[in-house]
Amino acid sequence: TKGLRVSDKGFLNTAVIQSEITYIDGEAGILRYRGYPIEQLALKSNHLETAYLLIYGVLPSKEQYHNFRLEVTRHRVVHADAEGFFRSFRYDAHPMAILTSAFAYLGSYYSEANPSLQGQKLYTKGDAESLEMIDRQIYRLIGKATTLAAMAYRVRQGREFVIPPSHLSYTGSFLYMMDHMGEENYTPNPVLEKALDVLFLLHADHELNASCTTVLQTASSLVDPYSAIAAGCASLYGPLHGGANEAVIRMLISIGSPENVPAFIQAVKKREKTLSGFGHRVYKTSDPRSFIVRKTADEVFKVTGRDALLDTAMALHDAAMKDEYFVRRKLAPNVDFCGLIYRAMGFPLDFFPVLFAVPRVVGWLAHWRQMMIQEGGVKIWRPRQVYVGPSKRDYEPIDSRA
Ligand code: SDX
Known about the structure:
It is built from 18 helices and three strands. It is an all-alpha fold. The longest helix is centred in the middle third of the chain and has 29 residues, at 128-156. The chain starts with 21 loop residues before the first strand and ends in a 30-residue tail after the last helix. Residues 10, 206, 209, 240-242, 244, 268, 274-282, 329, 331, 334-336 line the site of s-citryldethia Coenzyme A.
């Protein structure tokens, strides 16, 4: 391993690919999808249109958007056999564990998923057939992400699964599948539907975060995209990453009230507690998404009523932002305070990471497609190490060992 050196812990400053998809400037607090500022997209676009932009690199024409939406809607349906799979989980199974398994389950019956096993040729430039297969799997995974998430939610409540009417938006259909209890002409609350769609858009991609790296690392062996997405879900599940939106609320509940914030801050500084929802590997001033989350929260609370936890969250934010310990470490609120909105909308706490995974399937697939069609084909990701273990030594029989 001569000449190799370990990149800073946790890939601190390691670039493994070139990408045209998402741009982040951590010092300036900038996030752009294919060059479009996140602030403009959050205000003017919607999650499904932004999904098209992330995957294909351009904002769709009316016809392209119509066809994309039709394909995603068509592929939203999950095979009836899946019901038994979902009902096999224990009543208290964590929905993120169910979703992770569900994506691998999908891969178990989409046989054309694994070109290298089915002998199907991999993408080569200009090969329309393999590009069409890549796109079909993208429609399927984006469409089914909402259905699988809704099934994970309803199975725990012992409710039957429902298919939404096709006129509803991507996010509206998701809310329908989650909440429909048989009412005539059910339609989601438009303010809550818009708020969730903005949050989906904000969570759609974030360049090479831990879960996206996991998806690409996994897919680089040419396994099918369903298995790679399942691996991404497993990585996102962790409290340092997508699981933080659930951890933030558990933290705020444990703090209890604004009066307890100073003691909590002390405990964090003594490293006895973690301040979830703060800090970021890349953003060292602010996470631009957090400002849009704040604005979206104000809209939602007008409908749902204000959550008392907000007082604790604001007290925590104000205390941390002027405390030298956090300022010196450049710790600012990240996107994961959106848990306050999910809570106000009535989602169960352990469902929050699922609300992160559903939209992030888009970004994972945008990066997967970029890798699958790159010039020169797919190279397996196989990093090296610097070996620091024992040098050569000979085996000793157990009787002669101390
Ligand atoms: C997401 O990568 C992405 O893009 C992720 C994401 C995406 O969209 O995909 O943006 C989504 O995952 C946002 C992050 C959600 N996680 C949390 O909110 C969990 C709490 N945050 C921390 O665990 C932490 O900030 C990380 C994991 C987010 C970042 O960790 P880093 O980059 O490895 O930073 P670090 O641990 O090296 O921290 C530097 C210093 C350390 O102190 P010292 O050892 O130098 O004294 O800051 C401290 C850390 O102890 N620190 C914190 C802290 N985060 C970092 N101290 C208290 N509370 C925190 N939250």
